[in-house]
Amino acid sequence: MRDYGQVTPAFWIGETGKKLRGDVNAQVLAMYLPPQQAPAAPTKTGTRLPEDWTLPNEWRDWAIEARPDIDAETVADSFRDFWVAKPGKDGRKADWQATWRNWVRNQKTAGSLFSAKSANATFAGAI
Known about the structure:
Blueprint: H1 9-13, H2 15-20, H3 24-31, E1 47-48, H4 57-66, H5 72-85, E2 92-93, H6 96-105, H7 116-123
């Protein structure tokens, strides 16, 4: 059962409370009203990456500095192709520059794709 009687004093001195002062039934009903909640903060809905997107110089410079072991242009092509083709709400981002930085940080180097450990496990017992 609802914990009634939580109407704040501010309710009674406000516009609605003043209108209810002469009506006893309305005052009792007001005691059962749910507490007022603050309105939800507006959210960013995000945007899609434009199909004609090209890597901005500032983003390229950051990628070269952060990950000199990768080719920024090749990574940008992969980034564009992935996000342009991504359907639905998952293809919308509020901050494309932050998405780019995460994409660059998560890139695997060519040598890490095929490590000696995985090669040993794959070819174990082949001879």
